[in-house]
Amino acid sequence: MATRLDLSKRTLHRMTATCTLARTPLYDWHVAHGGRMVDFAGWSMPVQYGSIVEEHQATRRAVGMFDVSHMGRLEFFGPDAMAFLDQVVTRRVTDMQPGQVRYGLVCNEQGGILDDVLVYRLSSDSTQTDWPSFMMVVNASNREKIVQWLDKQQSGYAVDFKDVTTSTAMIAVQGPKAIELVKPLLDFDITAMRYYRCAFGSLGDEPGWISRTGYTGEDGIEWIGGADAAERVWSKVMSRAKACGGSAAGLGARDTLRLEAAMPLYGHELNEEITPIEAGLDFAVSLKDRDFIGRGALLAAKGNTKQPVRVGLQLEGRRVAREHSRILQGDDDVGYVTSGTFSPTFERPIAMAYVRPSVAAIGTRLAADIRGTAAAATVVPLPFYDRGKTT
Amino acid sequence: MKPENLLFASSHEWVALSEENGQKVATVGISAFAVEALTDLVFIELPQVGRQVEAGQSFCEVESVKAVSDIYAPVTGEVVAVNTELPDHLEILSSDAYGKGWIAKIKVTDDSSLAKLLDYSAYKKQCEDEA
Known about the structure:
heterodimer; A: 391 residues; alpha+beta; six-stranded antiparallel beta barrel; 19 strands; 24% helix; 30% strand; B: alpha+beta
């Protein structure tokens, strides 16, 4: 079996983990609780503790806890912080109110996606040197690239930013029971907080930014606070989570959950050759009455009816069409898979793919080439999983 | 079947040797260690009966939520039977990897292909080293 290779690779990961891989403040907890540690963007992260399917189901039915401290966290200071972010993010930043969180893209001049990010407006006062007015959460795999990009774009703006990734931690609590579970541990009323809002508060007596955000398709929160407090927060929330059928969940479940929710993942659905328009992320591009890096290219892309379209596919049988599988219509190669898995919720293979617009209509019958065998595939609406509809 | 009575390929397949009509037949499966490492199995592709296989050659595959893995023929010979119960009951692999979880029977045509197989204690040591 190829497992031999996988397993030896894991041994290798563990060995390199001791010398070169970065560790989150929860690394020891993961190892002590059976986390299978793998290299993810230079971080030693748990891909699973036991079964990915069980961790996935715990999140859909009760609550899943995720260590997402590997995500990059940047704080912004100075009077031009807002103007600067408005220039580098595809979505309008200038109308954000303190306490608002917004999903957006950072694009290059050609409209290619450098990263997908969350922008947090933390305060209306941008003159404080010890309290940021904005924060940006970026992908671990793009953190260095984005820091360099921001450095390059910074001249002319009275703005300063600080990479606080390693001095902070980030924990996601996700699932239908997440809100009632964290409610008694918070020093403010979380039920009054709307989706994509944030506030400074404390979770289990540990101060930090708490936002109603996530990457699973479930309701929930994310806490960003001091690295030294991470294990205390984690343990307090975990003991409550366990009592209601919850579980720690690794990157494996995080991937199956976000895929069912059709959330794009950088390096799969998104890269520098793909524009937000192709990716179907028009909602995160504000073209009107503002300028930003990549605007001209995105304006042109908007009128292009020939570019590939991101679609959802449901496959017959049980074999999974994985990344790079070709999509066929008869003998014609019409596209490729960017992410595919066996959906624990629907118990069948699902995939996201880029296909020619002529075959992108819902219900179109296609095939996925899985290592030389064609598997029937149908274009279905995204997201596959919508908690509003399913529950 | 007790693993102590089986032979193992370093690529995590097990072999139970028997004699049928004077022919060596290898019943083949994947080890409990491999099943545990793979987790969340969703699909197995059985080999074709009648297929000639060579030791070390991929002859079928097993898929988990996370990834697809090749299963390598641990011996050289001809596939004479496959476990048709398995594809619809992958849970058997977890509950009885060394018994009802058998995958195929291979009529051994080259005895020298048996020489590389490990006994259980050697295989167990390999797994401990890998874990």
